[in-house]
Structures are given as C-alpha cells and as structure tokens.
Amino acid sequence: MKKIAYLTTTFGALSHTYIRREIAALRSLGLDISLFSIYPEIAEELSQQDKLLAKEADCLFPLMPKIFHIFYSNIKFAITKPMFYFKTLQSVLFNKEKTVISSIGLICIFFVSSYMALRLQKKNIVHVHVHFPFVSGAVTMCAARISGIPYSIAIHSAASEGRSSVKGMKQQIKYAKFICFPSRYNIDYYDRVFPSKNKAYLVRYGIDSEKYAPLVEFSCANKYDKKMACLICVGRLVKKKGFSYVIEACKYLAEEGVNFRLTIIGEGPRRKELQKQTDAYNLNNRIIFKGACSEAVVKEELEESDICIVPSIKDEYGEKEGLPVIIIEAMALGVAVIATRHSGIPEIVKHEDTGILVPEKDSMAIVKAIKLFLKDNILREKCINNARIQVVKEYNIHEVAKLKKEIFEENIQ
What pLDDT score was predicted for residue 377? Predict the structure, then answer.
C-alpha cells in the first residue's frame, strides 16, 4: 500500500497509548506509516518500545533551527504550486475564528505548516491522518492543502469548539477526506455543530484482549469478603475528568464506615487542588496519588482494583470526553466500572449490564453505586462478565485495525 503519514501533537505522551497501539496493529497488517509530530516530548514512563516509536517522528518544533527551511518552503510552494498555496492562504486569512488571537494563530500555523508540507512531499506521502483537531489538526489541514495531499482526522473529544487551542475547526472538517470518531455520540454532536456525518466513520479504540485478560475469572461463588475495597481512577488531573466528585464520595464512604482505598493515577494542573481537597477531608490515609504511570503500572494497579470509577463531566470550555480508554482496559481485565452518563460512555457502560451509570457531578450517586457493587455480587459478576464479552467483540485491536485499513483503502486513490 502507498505511504501514509500519522501526525499528532506527540507520540510520546502517556495518554496516547491507544494511538501507538493502532499504529503497531496497522503496521502488522502491512501499512507503510511514517510519523510526524508537533513536539518532540517523550514521557520517561514509556516502555522502551514506545519510546522508540515516538522517536521515529519527524518533529515540527523547535522552530528556530528550521526558520530558513520554513522561509524556503513558503517560497517554493508559492512558486511551484501557486494555486494550492494562495487558495489555502486565502481561506486562512478570511477565517471565521472567534477571536483575533485565534485568527493570528491560524495564520502563523499556515506559514509554519509549509515546512511540514515539504517534509510530506519528500517522503512521498499520499495521505495524512491526524489525531486531534488542535494545533496538529490545523497544521495538517494547511500542510495537506498546500501540498495537494488529502488528509483525514481522528477526533477523540466531544464538544471541544470552545477551546482556544482548536483553530480552524470548521475548515479542518470541511476539507478532510474523512473523519474517524470513537463513539456515535461524537458523530452526532459534530454533525450538528460542523456537518460531517457524510464523511464520518465509527472506529472504536482497540485493545489486545489476550494481553488484557482477567487474572482470575470472577464468580459470585467467591463473594466479596475483602477487608478493604480497592477503588481506582485513571486520567489527567483536569476538570473534565471529575475526580473531585470521587474524592467527595470518599468522604461520605468514610463517614459511613466503609473500608476502602482509592488510587488516583495521573498528573495535571489540578493536582494541588485535589490534594488540598483530600487533606481537608482527612483522607490522606485512604487516597493515594500515584502520579503519571506507565501502561504496565496502570495495568498492574487495575488488576489489584475492585472498581474503576470514571466520573467524567463537561468542563468550563464545554468540552467533553469522547470515550475514556481506561473503561475498555478495566473491562478487559475484569474490573467493575462505575461511570457517568457522559458523551459516548453509555455506548460501552450499559447500566447494570456492563457497569453502573451515574449522573455527572453527583457524589452521592457514586457512593450508592460503590456500595451496590460491594454488596450485590450477582450484579457485579454479571457486569464484569458482560463487559469482558463486549470488549472482546467490539474493541479488539486486530479487528479495529482491519476496519481502519479498509477505510484507508477505500479513500486513498
């Protein structure tokens, strides 16, 4: 098959595990994929294999060593592909960004993206697939249009148009060859805001269900009789993750005499705030902040947990989660899941069938759900077993990769 480029902010982020899984699975099917990224950052916690993959990427930043090449690439495309170059420039200059700063940012991205366009040409790329419609999406849109190379987008979050980092969203969707979404909710949402259903594909996140398998099969014959309930939350410490509501729920659990431990894995700007909340509730002996962890450590922590809580909420920008990957990982490993009725989550967490759903921002509902799972072993067994069956059937990385390959073959000339 012809050469495809994958582009994102960085392939070295801890949270981009699912992107690295997808690339590895597609390459195993014979796809020739070159990697491009905006930033060169690589998390120390990554495995050696993931670090090597991230280091493959041709990075746009830092810009200073590339200033001459950026200037040269703009001149080159203005002369050799004037129609592509100036048509793209025109659409950028007369954009419909909400603020002057966003408009200036998009114009700057246009001039920088010419360097990326030149790199795409030199590597004989015939199609660019970008993850996230943020800076990487805007760079891809401009670079692809300048060079005449078609592109596609994988949009993971829902309702992200209010974020300042999303530039040229309408244009990104308008000019994309196709768009991949992880949930039907995402497809319906973006079609309402930026009509896109005619080019949308539902592509679930994939996981190796053999690697992610329960250590022991859960059976209600082995009733829950542990002295301590092990709870876990995993994700960046940002507002939309809703971790403060789980911490508040823990306060009520402690007051009711429930013996538990909550492990929170992840880092982010709300770390101090969440730690302060924990201190105020005198829960330091019950809540553990593990910080950023590797995929292997997250898997180990999940295997030792009884319940994974995913309390996602709509944040101050109006942004929502698409479909948190931690739900798929927990379900594959036989960990009971409690999650909010939020964006695409109900498509995988079906209430009292594959997990328990609770309203957003409702700590008492989380308390009741935890107590229900600890008390009702029959319900817990049903949810764990049904969830595992669903993950194996709908979220198998090998089947997901086959679908993605078919989409590429269908859309690439």
Answer: 92
Q: Exposed, middle or buried by CB within 10 Å (0-12, 13-18, 19+), for 76?
A: middle
Residue 358, strand partner residues: 340
> Which has the minimum average pLDDT: 87-96, 149-158, 251-260, 328-337?
87-96
Sign of the Cα torsion 203, 204, 208, 209 reads negative
Sorted by where each starts, the structural domains of the chain and their CATH numbers stand as 4-206+397-411 (3.40.50.2000), 229-394 (3.40.50.2000)
Cis status, amide bond into 311, omega within 30 of 0: no
CB neighbours of residue 407 within 10 Å: 17
And the tokens for 405?
């390959």
Count of beta carbons in the 10 Å neighbourhood of residue 256: 9
Residues 6 or more apart whose CB falls under 8 angstroms from that of 399 comprise 206
Please state the pTM of the whole predicted model.
0.92
pLDDT of 221: 46
d(CA 274, CA 284): 11
**Is pLDDT larger for residue 371 or for residue 318?**
371
Q: How far, in Å, are 145, 194, 266, 267 from residue 177 at the CA level?
A: 11, 14, 35, 35
Whole-number Å distance between alpha carbons of 236 and 238: 6
Residues 208-215 have a mean pLDDT of 91
Element (H, E) at 141: helix 135-147
Write out pLDDT tens, residues 12-26.
999 999 999 999 999
Q: Are 348 and 321 in contact (CB under 8 A)?
A: no
In this prediction, residue 219 carries a pLDDT of 55
